[in-house]
Structures are given as C-alpha cells and as structure tokens.
Design brief:
It contains 14 helices and 18 strands. The protein is of the alpha+beta class. Strand 16 (about 325-330) and strand 17 form a beta hairpin.
Length: about 425
Amino acid sequence: MIAAEHKLHAAPAEVATPAGESEAAEILRECSRFKTAVVPCGSGLHQHIGLAPQPPFVALKSERLTQVEYYDPGDLTIGVGAGMTLRELDALVKPHGQWLPVLAFPDRASGGNATIGGLLATAMHGPLKHAFGGVREFCIGVRFVTGDGMRAKGGGRVVKNVAGYDLMKLLIGSYGTLGVITSASFKLFPRPRQTATFVCRFPGLQNAMAVRDALMASPLAPLALEIISPGAAALLHGHADDAGWRVLLRASGSDQQLARYRDHLGNAASAELTGEDEAAAWSLLENFESALPPDAVVVAVSCPLSDVAQVLRSAERAALERKISWAGIGRACTGSLLIAFLGGSRPEQSISAVHALRASAPPSANAVIRRCPDSLKAGIALWQLREGELEIMRTFKNALDPAWILNRGRYFV
C-alpha cells in the first residue's frame, strides 16, 4: 500500500496488483498497446521524487509480489519478490546471523518499509554504504518486465554469475522508467555480533574533516562514518544546545578491535554507545528525511570524498545568505550527502539556495532534488543532468519502453 503521507500526486484511473511476473507482463502489454501510462508503486516512500505522474495512468502495485524464490544461508544468497519490504527481508535473514546492509536498523527506520523493487529503482542507501557500498554492489540479479510486456532478467542467482551485468546495473536507479522489477537476488553478509558507536563533537567543520582524514589514513575499517551538521543535530534531538558538528562512527569486532577505535579517537570521542542507546542514535539518523517539515527542499548530493567539506560549506553559505535554516547529514567517506533547506514562510528562498549550492559546488558534484513542494518544482531542474546524458537516457527508454508508458513524466515530460 502507498503510505498515507506519500500518496501519489494524482488519483490513478486504475490500480493493478499482479500476483506474478506473467500477470505484470500481461498488464504492461495491454497498457503499451493503448499507450496508457503506468506508475510502478512499492511502499510509496519515493513517489515524491521527480515530476508528478500525469493522469490518466495505471498504478501498478507490487504488494502481492512477496514470494521468497530461494534462500541459501550457506551460500549467503537470497532471491525475493519486489513487493517484499526491507524490514521483512531483514526479519527473514536475521535468525541466520546475516543481513542486507542497507539500513542499520530497518525494523525501526521509516526506510525499512521500502520495498525491494523501490530499493533498487531508487538506488536507496543508508549509512552502511561506507563499508558495503550501495545496492549495485550486492544485488546479483534482477527479473523485470519491459514497457512492452517482455519478461527479462539481468545477472543471476549466484555471486559469480555476470551474465546481463550491465542491464542489471541499468535498472538500478532508473526510478521505474525502463522496466518494472518483479524480483531480485542479493549477496548477503554476516551480521556483526558486537558493535559500538563513537560520538565525536567538534566546534567546526574543519575539525570534523581532520578526524575523518585521520581515520581514512588508519587501518581501521568502520561500518559507518556519518557527518552531521549543527542544524541536523538540533532537528534530530529537538534542541539547539551543545551545537556543533558531529561525526558518528560505528565499529564492529572483538573487544580488542573496539579498543583500537578508542585508542585512535582518544579525546575526540565524547561518548560511546552500545545496545539500545546505539540503536536509538542510528534510528534517529536513518529517519532524518521523514523528520523534516513538509515544506523542506531536500537535495541529494554526490561528490568525490575530497569535496565533501566544500559542498557542506557551500550549503551553509547559501542558507546564511538567504537567512534560512539548513540541515545536512551524509556518508563522510563516500561523498553521499543529504541537504535540506528550510525556508519556512519563504519557500522560494530554499529554491534560491539550491541554485546557489549548485553554482558554488565543485563541478564533479551532482545535486538532485529529492523532495520539494509541488508548487516550487516548476522553478528548478529536479535532475541535474550533464550534457549528453539526456540523449543516452532517451536511447535506453526507446529500447526498453518503446511506447513511453513507464513513469511518464518522472524524468521526461
């Protein structure tokens, strides 16, 4: 079902809930024949991204595609339907001491409601991207249906299978514009038996970056290394006292291994969290976007790790110059940042801040609007596409969705 707070912007003409791949293929063949737009729907968590679907359209829900195709704990591989949620998959593999490392605590994060299809279509990731990479790195196969109703697959059921590799990668992050993912296979990982999170507080961004650089140069390999702006810390904790930049480092291993982190961080670590306190801290962080007010303009920025500080300074300067608030979190060592501008009664100032951020950020940075009030979307490019990228996307669209029915308007009008 589509979550109440993330309903489609317009009511569909019809709702389809296929029970399997063959039914999904038949629906898409009919829609392609009559050139009826189709909007693939999972949990609805990401329906706000991009342009709103234009009616009339068919909402194709994955809620009945929840089968477990196979699960081999000994081989650390699993295949599940696209309608299964990340939370449900985690509950399935947790008793075997395994996990799919997207969210640290999917049972407590709003993102745990994301379906497997939505996870792949949006290339969703969380703080664990630091250690494990994004879903592209551990998805080993997808089964999907093209816009004209052809059943296809990329990758396979085993880690060493590379057939269809490029096609699988193409589907991940395509936001349902190239095909409807019906099921997927993943490589799983052993679940850490013991973890601890070290909280570091700094008066300025430069101090936080210095600790990050020292950690990168060390032999330590944390599970997550998250940077949190003062505004984000205030938003997450509900108060503005003890303001400053924070770095959260989550580590796993034996008592001796965790002791190495304590020795390395020294006085930089102001607190060490374990158990429920640790789970609560990461759950707050993973719920960051859902904690933002509805009028926030949220930007996902990807940049080289060497440019993280410059992007954050650009965001801070853009907000200060317009006298609005901002909040930012992100993977300090992968350059994946989430920045929110909070214009309040002056929402147009948030859009102006995005323009300023894009203009002052390094050329290698890419800033995509993740969330924005519908009334402001006409005033900004939601997708920051570089020269030539749009034509490449159109080429793939023509090949896999010749009638242009899938998520029509998400990228293209």
